[in-house]
Amino acid sequence: MKTGRRTVAVATLVGALGFSVLNAPAARAADTGVTVSDIVINNGKPIVVGTSKEVEPPIRFNIALPSGYSTADPSRYTAYPFLYRGSINTAADTGENFIQPGSYTCYEIDSKHARCEGNLYIDPHPSQEHVDSNSDATTWKVGVSLRLWKADGGLKAEERETRSTTAQLKRAAKATTNASPEPVTKGRTITVTGTVTRANWSTKKYDAYSGRTVSLQFRAKGADTFKTVKKATTSSTGGLKTTVTASVDGSYRWVYYGNSTTGAATSAADYVDVR
User: Fold this and answer.
1) Which residue spans within the chain are E strands per DSSP?
2) What is the pTM of this model?
């Protein structure tokens, strides 16, 4: 996996001045004294990516600056988290197995501390090659990039650090439902069919997802919630099929709860009129 060379736009902490930062050069063995803490990726939830839609998971983190640097002068430092696999330096230097922020904005707490909010950027479109292998659906490490500049603009120090925090990337799934006949006589049999598919990041298509246990849920007319009434397993083509007895008007849907590599999926509900 690799990223495009996107600019990380960072709003200034005080006033209206802004600046831009490109991907880092090779890491230098120099302690910046900058601290990035309290990193939260996608609100602690897995990041689910399909085959075409860009995904921008939210990120939050805090920054603390060393002596001689101030949040009032953001042009002299950068600090942000990123996701990577393999070697932290190889990922950051080559862009392979590397996901960085699309943008973030920092808000001054005081002259040495700031709170930052923004988004990572993942584009599954084939021309971008951001997710190009299904093996990318796994646990990613979280690193931070830290840099300080001298007053004359020269790079003073840079380092990259790995944190204990991780993030899970998952392939998106889809589900469909069809209940028939409609309408149906009370006491007769309703056949509920459907499918479950999931994103294939190599082909940029959705493939049948076989062998999955999926819940059939029903919500009676006028009720607030769906309740599970049966479970079924997807066929080799991702198909689902089961029967229920018609009793009252209501809606049926299939729900797949996902796993370590695949996100959850809930189909649109299909309403059945019982007469």
Assistant:
1) 8-11, 18-21, 35-41, 47-49, 58-64, 77-84, 98-99, 101-110, 113-120, 139-149, 155-171, 173-180, 189-200, 205-208, 213-220, 227-233, 239-245, 250-256, 265-266, 270-272
2) 0.86
